[in-house]
Amino acid sequence: MTNHKKLWAGLVLCLSLLPAVARQSDPSKMNRFIDNLMSRMTLREKLGQLNLPVTGDIVTGQAKSSDVAAKIRKGDVGGLFNLKGVGKIREVQKVAVEQSRLRIPLLFGMDVIHGYETVFPIPLALSCTWDMQAIENAARVAAVECSADGINWTFSPMVDICRDPRWGRMAEGNGEDPFLGSAIARAMVKGYQGDDLSLNNTVMACVKHFALYGAAEAGRDYNTVDMSRWRMFNDYFPPYEAAAKAGAGSFMTSFNVVDGIPATANRWLLTDVLRERWGWNGFVVTDYTAISEMIAHGMGDLQQVSALALNAGTDMDMVADGFIGTLEKSLKEGKVTEQAIDRACRRVLEAKYKLGLFDDPYRYLDKKRAAGEIYTPRHRADARRTAAESFVLLKNDAQTLPLKKQGRIALIGPLADTRANMPGTWSVAAAFDRYKSLFQAMRDAVGDKAVVTYAKGSNITDDAQIEANGSMFGREIRDDRTVRQMIDEAVGVAREADVIVAAVGETSEMSGESSSRSDLSLPEAQRRLLQALKETGKPIVLVNFSGRATVMTWEAERFSTILNVWFGGSEAGDAICDVLFGDRVPSGKLTVTMPKSVGQIPLYYNHLNTGRPLESGKWFSKFRSNYLDIDNEPLFPFGYGLSYTSFKYTNLRLSANTMTADGTLTATVDVTNTGHYDADEIVQLYIRDLVGSVARPVKELKGFERVHLKRGETRTVSFTIDATLLKFYNVALDFVCEPGDFEVMVGPNSRDVQTVKFIMTGGVSK
Ligand code: BGC
Predict the structure, then answer these.
(1) Of the residues 153, 208, 287, which should be mutated to test ligand 1's pocket, given the most ligand atoms within 8 Å of the CB?
(2) DSSP string across 130-176
């Protein structure tokens, strides 16, 4: 036993007689422990637990003398975040448990959004796998790696539904659909937290951003949100609720207003809905400075907004210094109660208890684990396979893909030879120089079977300032050469080649936080390059990098082959090559609608009908709901994605034509692999409720299954339909299913479906 452990053992003597797992999972023991601890805490120490300050610059070996260490010693800090490295974290934890009066261990949080040093695809890409096992595993690997490096709390999953790709943070979420988003929320919480939060390789999840952050007006980050409660409950809340019910340990508030009140001070949201309605009992942390930002929202001064936040149900203050700085005064002035402070403090302490930190504050600080469990071959293989599953083949008209490993391949484009832009936004623990660029990966993939040549061809955009705005944190790839020089070089390389692979799109920082765009098409600089390449007459495979749904109308009209690769993580280079060369068959399907024009936004598949829907097949009709200058259809619909093989859907049938509220129905379809590759297909079930007490969407995803089919094989895929799948929130916000006619649709995407009908009999059921 180490010295620290001996010291610690004195404090928790009675607890140390019990086995760890039993201890963490016994609520009455936890309550007794926390009662005892809190009875010894001063008001200031309680407020310290509610404080999550900026980590500051902590250098290994210097932790004890850093500014933050002084605060920790005083008991003014509940946790820290985004501090990387087990050595540093151990030193800081040591200050907390050896030098603060009550020796309360710290939480160590981090934005481990899609992996740690082994980076998985950005969440939006992960969602395009529709593979819950792979997604749970991605979270599991992230938990293993970050916990090996000292982290015990991750600010993930981000489950904000987003229907507006102008918003850069679409990259961090799971797309536009609440049903799929809920399944992913559950898978991620399970992956991070496992079945026992106190194990040293599980971490506490933090569901964010509660709530509705993805509906920021005009797609501008941090902007106002305003929607009906009916829409909140039906379309935006389900993934948060799913994560709460999956037992996520913490929630993060969002920056936006909800019903006119910033989420961080919204009692209805944080207490009535999250705790009372959903029965959730974790702790709520604010987003970065969300308390002090309420001053700009016009909610009062720091003291006022801090009291509002606490009273609403916020437990921990990230960076604003509002709780630690003003709540003592507010207590004296009767603006907050001691019970409210105690309640928040208890919730934070409970989280620490559940993580096993009182049992062993060094539980996540094992240097051996850090040396052996990060960026391992197994984790990298998982990330590579998952990345390949996330790519969406949008077009392959001339069957240019897969490519053969032969001849001369020209790899051209601003994203072709950059390591730093492979992992994607919010990869805070990424180790760029360990990752391959696509150029490197392609040379490795072909070995001596083919020659890969390279030219950059263009900058991301002609405007250096716009490019700088969207390429920070070591991701800058600006080239000083002239447009002409770059294009000439590229065309020269292309002319010598048998095939061109054009790596174009966004840099990784053109999506993510504070990366809204008003124009979602490929910048002119890159279009000019593509046009010049097209004029060589060589076959072209367009590989599009993006952190959102982009507008690819121009490209789709001119190029026969488009593979959307998002940002695939640390192993993206190899994974892209796996798909380009046919070692893996693409199977990803869009979880966001790809519009034809920004003017169509918001465009999403599960919309309501209007009283004047456009007749099918038409693109304009006077006095119908449409545009003068563009049709209503997306370029690529939700759920869409091609394969190297082809699938045929036949014989959709139901086990019966009627169903009662307590009964079930089975929808069955035969899916045949009619092409030349063994491959996965994601079979999708949609339902439409034809008559309701409120207007119902034209279709809603209600089931999906990823199936593997060998060439020529037919599989019968079945979905069970029960009343839960038919329920929705009515005007009273009751979750009900109403009798009447329903359509059941099954297909390879939300557009190309077969339809059958049934009737639900009986009355409204809750
Ligand atoms: C983001 C959060 C993130 C936090 C901590 C904020 O700016 O909105 O998603 O978890 O910073 O890094």
Answers:
(1) 287
(2) --HHHHHHHHHHHHHHHHHTT--EE---B------TTSGGGGGS--S
Task: Label residue 12 by pLDDT band (50, 70, 90).
Answer: very low
Nearest CA to ligand 1 atom 2: 287
Per-residue pLDDT reduced to its tens digit, 491-509:
999 999 999 999 999 999 9
User: Looking up tokens 């919480």, which residue turns up?
Assistant: 189
| 222 C-beta closer than 6 A to ligand 1 | no
Q: How far is it, in rounded angstroms, from Cα 428 to Cα 325?
A: 29
- Give pLDDT tens digits for 177-192: 999 999 999 999 999 9
Cβ proximity of 141 and 134 under 8 Å: no
Per-residue pLDDT tens over the stretch 631-673: 999 999 999 999 999 999 999 999 999 999 999 999 999 999 9
- Kindly state the DSSP code that residue 537 receives in the 8-state scheme: T
pTM equals 0.96
Quick one: angle between helices 178-193 and 238-245, nearest 10? 30
513 lines ligand 1 (CB under 6 A): yes
Residues of the chain within CATH 3.20.20.300 domain(s) are: 20-371
Domain with CATH 2.60.40.10 in the chain: 647-761
> Would you say the CB of residue 288 lies under 6 angstroms from ligand 1?
yes
Question: Is the alpha carbon torsion for 280, 283, 289, 294 positive or negative?
Answer: positive
CATH topology of domain 403-580: Rossmann fold (3.40.50)
CATH fold group of domain 20-371 = TIM Barrel (3.20.20)
pLDDT tens per residue, range 403-435: 999 999 999 999 999 999 999 999 999 999 999
Ranges for all domains in the chain classified under CATH 3.40.50.1700: 403-580
Residue 98: how many other CB atoms lie within 10 Å: 14
Residue 23: the pLDDT is 47
Active site residues: 287
Q: How far is CA 28 from the centre of its chain?
A: 35
DSSP-derived secondary structure letter, 712: T
Kindly state if the Cβ of 287 falls inside 6 Å of ligand 1: yes
Q: Does 1 or 230 have the greater pLDDT score?
A: 230
Ligand 1 centre from 250 Cα, in Å?
14
Return the residue whose CA atom lies nearest to atom 10 of ligand 1.
Answer: 155
In angstroms, rounded to a whole number, what is the distance separating the alpha carbons of residues 633 and 623?
Answer: 18
Q: Which CATH number fits domain 647-761: 2.60.40.10, 3.40.30.10, 2.60.120.1440, 3.40.50.2300?
A: 2.60.40.10
Q: State how far the Cα of 69 lies from the Cα of 66, in Å rounded to an integer.
A: 5
Handedness of CA 399, 405, 407, 413 (dihedral sign): positive
Partners of 250 in the beta sheet? 206, 283
Q: What pLDDT score does 26 carry?
A: 85
> What are the tens digits of pLDDT across the range 355-391?
999 999 999 999 999 999 999 999 999 999 999 999 9
Band (16; pLDDT cuts 50, 70, 90): very low
What pLDDT, on a 0 to 100 scale, did the predictor assign at position 513? 97
With the most atoms of ligand 1 within 8 angstroms of its CB, the residue from 221, 513, 516 to mutate is 513
Q: Are 113 and 572 in contact (CB under 8 A)?
A: no
Among the residues of 278-321, which ranges form H helices? Answer: 290-296, 302-312
